[in-house]
Structures are given as structure tokens and as C-alpha cells.
Amino acid sequence: MYEGCYKGVLLVILVLAIQIPYINKAFLTAAHRHHPPPSLSSDNNLQNQAVPDYVVKQRDEVTLVCDVLINPNDIVWLHNGELVDIGHRYSRSSSGLTIVNVRLEDDGYWQCRHRDNSNLYDKPKWLLVLEPPREPYLSIDGRRLDASNLFIPVKENQALTIECIVEGGNPRPSLHWVLEPSEHNMDTAPNLVFSEPVTPKTGPMRSEAKIERVVRQHHNATVMCLVNHVTLLHQALNASLLLDVQCESAPSIE
Q1: Which sign, positive or negative, has the C-alpha torsion 27, 33, 34, 38?
Q2: Where are the transmembrane segments (predicted)?
Q3: Within a 13 Å sphere around the CA of 45, how many CA atoms are in the beta-carbon half?
Q4: What is the C-alpha to C-alpha distance for residues 110 and 150, in angstroms, rounded to an integer?
Q5: Helical H segments across the chain, by residue range
Q6: Phi, psi for 134 (deg, rounded to 5)
Q7: 213 compared with 186, residue with greater pLDDT
Q8: Which of 92, 127, 135, 227 is the most buried (most CB within 10 A)?
Q9: Domains of the chain, start order
Q10: Does the pLDDT of residue 8 top 90, yes or no?
Q11: What is the pLDDT of residues 191-247, one digit of tens each?
Q12: Regarding predicted confidence, which is higher, 46 or 205?
């Protein structure tokens, strides 16, 4: 049998923005792991590329430069290994290929080559199209936590697993967990055990945090999932909950 050992709401989700350091090249280097280059040519230097050649926002305009001396009329362009039809949003220029109204689908590797001589080609160039991630949310036992209606008991001496889910974001965002004990339990609340985020090529990113055994010192502790992304500049998205521990009743002595 359990009874509340503290007053207050059991769990409260807070979505807020907090200040964290801006990540630029280091973030893009990590993002490169999720943009593996296709086999467009035998250029081994592509494998060592860590920073994009072009970084643009959606709906912007960009011109991709072809660095091979070829008559512009004899140039064809490939996107992730597929031949591109010139027209609509794509137009040739004396310096390369201009893309207007850039879309997320334009993200990837672009390469120019001679239409008739496959030995005349430029190395693939990485175009990164930025997309900010959506607000993260938390889930317990497969059920999304609703910020407007949270009454989920956290029982003492039980395990608690929380999942953080974030959709969107290009390159993929990074997820981090933080446990902030209450002011009265700064040195006694056990830490979180968290897993590395699952980063599929498509679909939402997920990360789990677990408290192996909820104890009284966790009362009023805040569990936060931080989402960092290059488009967020000096801010991170945040989904957090406040723990209200339900303590075990002491056995009665008769």
C-alpha cells in the first residue's frame, strides 16, 4: 500500500527553452554520420569530408559550382547518383547549377560530369538543407505524457523508464538527459541511467532514461530531455517532468 508522502501534483511536464552552448562544426561533423555519401565516383577524399560544402535553409536559393572545365551545355548533374532533369527549380548557369526554393528533398550529394564522357567529372559536393526539429515530448510505458493532464504515480522502490521522442530535424538533432535533484536533496538523489539515442535515417529520434530504483530523495527532482540542433542557435528545446514520489507506508505494529 502506498500513500503520498508529499503534497503536489504527481508529474508535471514543462516545455521550456534553456541556454546551452551553440554547436557549429562539431555538430555538423556528428551529423555527417547520418549522411553517408553515395558511391558516385572513386574519389576517396569524399570519405573524409566532415563539413558540408553548402548549408542552406528551406526556400532559399543556392548555386552549386562545377569545378571541371566543361562547356556548360555539356554538363549533366546527379543528385545522390540519380540524373537530374533541368527545369522548374533547377537551372544551369555559367558557374554551375542554381536551385531556387530549396526543399528538404534537395539535401544530399550533388555531382557534375560531362554528358558523354564519364571520365570528366567533379567530386560530389554535400548540400545540407536545414530543418529545425519539432518540440520533444516524453513517454512512459508507451503512452505520451500530456502536459495538460498528468496524474501518473511514481512509487517508491520501483523502477521508472522515460522515453524522449523528437520528430524532424536535419541534420539529426542531439538528445541529452539531465537529472536535477530538489534543493533539499542535492547530494543524495541517485543519477539517471540513459541510453544512446536511436537515430534511424527516417522517423523520430528516441532516447530512454531510467531510474533503477525510485527513492524518497527523488521527490521534486526534475528529469529533463534536452534537444540541441544547429538551427536553434543558443537555445535548446526541452521536455521535462517533476517527480512526486509516493512513499511506502510503514507497517503497522499491533
Answers
A1: positive
A2: 6-23
A3: 6
A4: 48
A5: 25-31
A6: -85, 170
A7: 213
A8: 227
A9: 54-130 (2.60.40.10), 137-246 (2.60.40.10)
A10: no
A11: 788 888 887 777 899 999 999 999 888 888 889 999 999 999 888 999 999 888 888
A12: 205
